[in-house]
């Protein structure tokens, strides 16, 4: 029978286990770094997308308010013109002239 050097075998086994532990620790650290880097990148992309969506929503709101103000001015102008035309003296068999009828019809259709 061969003589087995248990001390040398134990030392090799210990060295192999230490190497395995070091490699696993290094791999875990690399995994954590990659995970956090990916998480940060995803968060950054989310924030950029959110900022773009908020900007688009704000622009849409501004356009809506501008259009609403323009429509209100037009409505007030039509109302004033209808009142002005109604006060114009007309014949007894004709209630409004052609432009007055047009303005009244526009006002009715806009409601």
Brief write-up:
With 111 residues, the chain is mainly alpha-helical.
How are the SSEs placed, and which strands pair?
Blueprint: H1 6-86, H2 98-109
Helix pairs in contact: 1-2
What does this structure look like?
There is one protein chain. The chain has 111 residues and is mostly helical. 84% of the residues lie in helices and 0% in strands. It has 2 helices and no strands. It has helices at residues 6-86, 98-109. The model has no long low-confidence stretch (mean pLDDT 85).
- Specify the structural class: mainly alpha
The whole-angstrom Rg is: 41 Å
Uncertain stretches:
none
Distance between the termini: 109 Å
Oligomeric state of shown chains: single chain
Residues in helices, as a percent range: over 70%
> What is the number of helices?
2
- Biggest sheet character: none
What would the average pLDDT be, to the nearest integer?
85
Pattern of helices and strands: HH
Strand content: under 5%
**Silhouette:** rod-shaped
Based on DSSP secondary structure assignment, what is the total number of beta strands? Answer: 0
Question: What labels would you give this structure?
Answer:
0% strand, mainly alpha, single chain, 111 residues
């Amino acid at each position: 029978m061969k003589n087995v050097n248990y001390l040398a075998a134990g030392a090799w086994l210990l060295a192999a286990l230490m190497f395995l532990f070091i490699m696993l620790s290094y791999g875990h650290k690399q995994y954590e770094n990659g995970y956090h880097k990916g998480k940060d990148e995803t968060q950054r992309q989310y924030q950029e997308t959110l900022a773009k969506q908020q900007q688009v929503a704000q622009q849409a709101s501004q356009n809506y308010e501008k259009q609403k103000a323009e429509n209100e001015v037009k409505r007030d102008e039509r109302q004033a013109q209808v009142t002005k035309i109604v006060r114009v003296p007309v014949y007894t068999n004709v209630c409004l002239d052609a432009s007055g009828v047009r303005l009244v019809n526009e006002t009715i259709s806009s409601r």
